[in-house]
C-alpha cells in the first residue's frame, strides 16, 4: 500500500511531467532558451548563436513550427527572440501575430542566426546554449539542459540573472523559477499501485489531458497534415483493407494527432516527459480502446494513468532524449494499460510489457518529423498484440533477448540499451541526417 508521502510525490511528479506543449518540444525548448536571453534586453538582437547537443539538433531540424509553414530550427530561434516571453514555457509558440512572424522571418533572412553543435563528452543529451548580442553590443546568455524547461544559467552583460524560484519569488521573465522539487524513484509496483489504487481525485487530471490530445486528433481529421496517416486509416481505402475495429480507431486517433503536431499545426497537446508524441501515444490508444469497450470514467482514468506513469518510470531510467524511439516507450505503457482494460491481472500486464520489450526495442529515433506518425502506429499495433498475447498466456521469456524474469530488471535492460548501447548509433544517425545535402551537392 502506498504511503501518503508516496502519493504526494507521485502526484507532484505527474503534474511536472504531463504538461501542455505547442509544437515539437525540442524546437520549443530552443525558442524558450532564446526567449530567456532576449527578455534580458530592450534592444534588438544583432546576432544569435545557438549551440545544441546532438540529440536536440537531431530532433529539432526536421519538424514543422506551428503557424509558420516552415520547418526547422532557425524560425523557432527567431520567434523566441521576437516574442521574448519565457513565462509561456513550452506554450511559447502557441500564438503570435502576422507582424511578429514577419519580424522573425526578416531575422532569419538577415543571416544573423548561427546554429552549431555543442562539443564535449559531458554535454547533456538535452542541451541548449544561447548567446545573443544586442544592437548595443551587450551579451545575453541562457542555458537549458536536462529537461525542456530546465534553465540552469542566465546572464546579461556579465551579470548573473539566474534566480531559482521560491514560494516568495513567482515566475517572471527573468529567472527560470522552479520550486525545490521532491523526486521519487519509481518501480513497477509503485506505478501499478498508484494507478489502480491511488485517490481518484489525484488522478482525474490525466483523463482531461487525454481529452485534450483527442481534440488535437479531431482537429487533424478535418485538415491535411503530414502524411495524413490518421485520415487514411479512416478513409474508404483504410476501411476496405484494414476494417473498422478497436485497433484501427486507436491507430487513427493516435497517428492523426502526430500527423498534425509534427507538421506544425497550431495545436497544443499534453506531453509526457518532455515529448508531445509520447503524451499522445501513451494516452490516446488507451482512451480510444476504453471508449470502444464502454469502460467507466474511473477505469479509463486509471488505465490512462497506468500507461502515462509507466512511461515516466521508463524515462527516468532512459533519459529524455536517446536513440530509442519514444514510441517504443509509450507503446509499452499502452500495452500494460490495455491489458488492464481487458480485465487482465497485474501479472498479465507485466507479460504485455515483456512482449513489447521483446518486440520493438530496436526502433531508432531519427529525429522529430512528420513520419513519426508511422512509428506511432507501429507502437500502437504492437501494444494491442502484446496485450492479447499476454491475456492468452503467451509471454516472451527470460531466455529470449533482453527480457528478464524481473520486470524492473527487464525495463532497466531496455533503458541501458537505449541510453548507452545505442550511443554510437545515435551519432551515426545524426551524421547521416546532417550530411544528406552535402552528399548530393
Estimated radius of gyration: 21 Å
Largest sheet: 6 strands, mixed
Instruction: Give the helix level as a range of percent.
Output: 55-70%
Mean pLDDT: 91
The termini sit apart by: 63 Å
> What's the total count of β strands?
10
Structural class: alpha+beta
Q: Order the strands across the largest sheet as they lie in space.
A: 5-2-6-7-8-9
Can you walk me through this structure?
The chain has 441 residues and is an alpha+beta fold. 55% of the residues lie in helices and 10% in strands. The chain is built from 17 helices and 10 strands. The chain has helices at residues 4-17, 25-38, 54-60, 73-83, 98-109, 188-197, 200-221, 229-234, 236-242, 246-262, 276-293, 297-318, 326-341, 346-360, 372-391, 407-421, 423-440, and strands spanning 20-22, 45-52, 64-65, 70-71, 113-117, 127-134, 139-145, 151-156, 159-160, 268-270. It has a 6-stranded mixed β-sheet with strand order 5-2-6-7-8-9. α11 runs parallel beside α13 and α14 (346-360) runs parallel beside α16 (407-421). It is globular, with a radius of gyration of 21 Å. Residues 165-180 have low confidence and may be disordered.
Amino acid at each position: 500500500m502506498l504511503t501518503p508521502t508516496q502519493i504526494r510525490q507521485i502526484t507532484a511528479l505527474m503534474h511536472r511531467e504531463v504538461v501542455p506543449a505547442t509544437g515539437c518540444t525540442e524546437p520549443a525548448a530552443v525558442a524558450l532558451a532564446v526567449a530567456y536571453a532576449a527578455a534580458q534586453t530592450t534592444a534588438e538582437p544583432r546576432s544569435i548563436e545557438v549551440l545544441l547537443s546532438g540529440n536536440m539538433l537531431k530532433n529539432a531540424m526536421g519538424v514543422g513550427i506551428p503557424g509558420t509553414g516552415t520547418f526547422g530550427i532557425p524560425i523557432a530561434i527567431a520567434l523566441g527572440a521576437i516574442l521574448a516571453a519565457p513565462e509561456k514555457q513550452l506554450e511559447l509558440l502557441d500564438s503570435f501575430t502576422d507582424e511578429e512572424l514577419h519580424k522573425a522571418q526578416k531575422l532569419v533572412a538577415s543571416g544573423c542566426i548561427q546554429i552549431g553543435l555543442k562539443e564535449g563528452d559531458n554535454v547533456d543529451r538535452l542541451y541548449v546554449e544561447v548567446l545573443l548580442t544586442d544592437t548595443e553590443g551587450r551579451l545575453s546568455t541562457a542555458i537549458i539542459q536536462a529537461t525542456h524547461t530546465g534553465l540552469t544559467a542566465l546572464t546579461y552583460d556579465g551579470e548573473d540573472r539566474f534566480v531559482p524560484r521560491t514560494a516568495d519569488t513567482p515566475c517572471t521573465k527573468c529567472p527560470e523559477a522552479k520550486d525545490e522539487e521532491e523526486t521519487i524513484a519509481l518501480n513497477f509496483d509503485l506505478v501499478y499501485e498508484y494507478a489502480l489504487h491511488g485517490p481518484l481525485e489525484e488522478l482525474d487530471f490525466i483523463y482531461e489531458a487525454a481529452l485534450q490530445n483527442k481534440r488535437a486528433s479531431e482537429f487533424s481529421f478535418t485538415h491535411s497534415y503530414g502524411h495524413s496517416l490518421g485520415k487514411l486509416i479512416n478513409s474508404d481505402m483504410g476501411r476496405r483493407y484494414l476494417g473498422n475495429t478497436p485497433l484501427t480507431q486507436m491507430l487513427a486517433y493516435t497517428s492523426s494527432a502526430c500527423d498534425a503536431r509534427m507538421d506544425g499545426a497550431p495545436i497544443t497537446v499534453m506531453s509526457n516527459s518532455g515529448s508531445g508524441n509520447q503524451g499522445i501515444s501513451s494516452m490516446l490508444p488507451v482512451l480510444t480502446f476504453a471508449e470502444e469497450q464502454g469502460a467507466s470514467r474511473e477505469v479509463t482514468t486509471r488505465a490512462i494513468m497506468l500507461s502515462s506513469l509507466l512511461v515516466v518510470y521508463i524515462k527516468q531510467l532512459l533519459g529524455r532524449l536517446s536513440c530509442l524511439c519514444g514510441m517504443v516507450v509509450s507503446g509499452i505503457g499502452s500495452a500494460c494499460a490495455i491489458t488492464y482494460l481487458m480485465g487482465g491481472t497485474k501479472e498479465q500486464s507485466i507479460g504485455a510489457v515483456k512482449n513489447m520489450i521483446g518486440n520493438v526495442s530496436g526502433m531508432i529515433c531519427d529525429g522529430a518529423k512528420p513520419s513519426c506518425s508511422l512509428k506511432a502506429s507501429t507502437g500502437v499495433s504492437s501494444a494491442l498484440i502484446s496485450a492479447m498475447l499476454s491475456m492468452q498466456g503467451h509471454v516472451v521469456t527470460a531466455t529470449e533477448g533482453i527480457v528478464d524474469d524481473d520486470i524492473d530488471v527487464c525495463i532497466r535492460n531496455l533503458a541501458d540499451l537505449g541510453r548507452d548501447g545505442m550511443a554510437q548509433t545515435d551519432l551515426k544517425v545524426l551524421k547521416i541526417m546532417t550530411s544528406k545535402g552535402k552528399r548530393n551537392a
